[in-house]
Amino acid sequence: MRKFVGYRCSVCGQEYGPEEVTYLCPKDNGSLDVVLDYAAIKGSTRPGDVQASPDFSIWRYLPLLPVGDPGFRGTPLRAVGWTPVYTPKNLARKLNLRQIWIKDESRNPTASFKDRASAVVVARAREIKAAVVVTASTGNAGAALAGMAAAAELSAVIFAPKSAPPAKVAQLLVYGARVMLVDGSYDDAVKISGQAAAEFGWYCRNTGYNPFTAEGKKTAAFEIWEQVLAAEKLERPLCVFIPVGDGNIIAGIHKGFKDLHQLGWLERMPRIFGVQAEGSASVANAFEAGSEVMQAVEANTLADSISVNMPNDGLRALRAATQTGGSYIKVTDAQILAAIAELGRYGIFSEPAAAAAFAGLRKALESGLIGAGDPVLALNTGSGLKDVNAARRAVAEAPIIEPRMSALRRALEVMH
């Protein structure tokens, strides 16, 4: 079955065949949506076929993906996705919410959501016989690409700003990628990675640039459909909170829900809420202005994974909220750190960008954007182990005591 039939520009609507373009629309540099043959998919696959799959990874959704089976069974490439959703009852009571889910993407092979996009991009790279894959990243996307490329026996080159957290850089190196630390911003790393891809013929994974990244990220929407929407009888639309930097995660999840709706498998669309750090809020600013025009900012936030001057996938990120009755929320770095500590009390360890989603959920409750009766899901996009320095800032230092019971008692009194 030929599922992948072409591309459509998200800006001008121009359509292209599968072989006509690779990255952006030639007319206006708009991000391209992958177009699937929904009639063919409906004719060959039923919802029950997917739900009965014994493959608990993103590859259970192969009938809805624009790539073939990548092989490499028994490797991390085949372990991406089907991450758990938690329902912490004490947290629901504390927030006065009837229903809350936290979807924990830190359980992916390289400990972040970005494995979804990288797995599908690597599968595409194998299909087009690319020998080298490349991306710009503050750490997570690069680690995901390096890990998936290693599993699929491809070479990877990663450009990261020199300010990237050391733990993330270490991951890149351990996976065997060629790592270039750029003396500049993430946006500078994006620019040189694109130039290098063009110069050397490498296959570029860059967020909002390669159409297949959103196709990987949409698999989270498919899982939310199975794990929450099809499993629960919700009286109101599910409110999904997603951290936003470049905008590709929220755009991909929106695409996933639209695919399901187009197939007739999803009756009611969830409301999608984008959360941005105040110091990196181009999309949120446009939402507040009622405009689809993004203005660059000088990004300044501890949440490196969503620290972006100008989002590469801003338009689709904006529409994810405007087309679903959602909204955009800005949170401070202090609110992000507080969210790291609060989630930790329920056994969930988040890096700053991941905790931003929960911080946004809290702010939406306080401002009345959502109410106690709204079912909510926050996406925890990456492990706190990715940025231990930020985690340490979120909590008090552990006391150092002398090895005597009297010292222990004094410390316990202070801690109470």
Describe the structure in your own words:
By secondary structure, the protein is an alpha/beta fold. Among the domains are: 1-44; 77-110 and 214-394, Rossmann fold. The protein has helices at residues 38-44, 47-51, 89-95, 115-127, 140-151, 166-174, 186-200, 211-217, 219-229, 248-263, 282-289, 314-322, 333-344, 352-367, 388-394, 405-415, and strands spanning 4-9, 15-16, 32-36, 85-86, 100-104, 132-136, 155-161, 178-182, 203-204, 239-243, 271-277, 327-331, 376-380. It has a six-stranded mixed β-sheet with strand order 4-5-13-10-11-12, sandwiched between helices. Strands 8-7-6-9 form a four-stranded parallel β-sheet, sandwiched between helices. Strands 2-1-3 form a three-stranded antiparallel β-sheet. Strand 6, helix 5 (140-151) and strand 7 (155-161) form a beta-alpha-beta unit. Helix 8 (211-217) crosses helix 10, helix 11 (282-289) crosses helix 12 and helix 13 (333-344) crosses helix 14. The radius of gyration is 21 Å and the shape is globular.
Strand order of the largest sheet: 4-5-13-10-11-12
Which range does the strand content fall in?
Answer: 5-15%
The helix/strand class is alpha/beta
CATH T-level fold name of the domain at 77-110 and 214-394? Rossmann fold
User: Mean of residue pLDDT?
Assistant: 95
SSE pattern, N- to C-terminal: EEEHHEHEHEHEHEHEHHEHEHHEHHEHH
CATH hierarchy: architecture of the domain at 77-110 and 214-394? 3-Layer(aba) Sandwich
Gap from first CA to last CA:
64 Å
Gross morphology: globular
What is the helix fraction of residues, given as a range?
A: 25-40%
Number of helices: 16
Rounded radius of gyration (Å): 21 Å
Low-confidence stretches: none
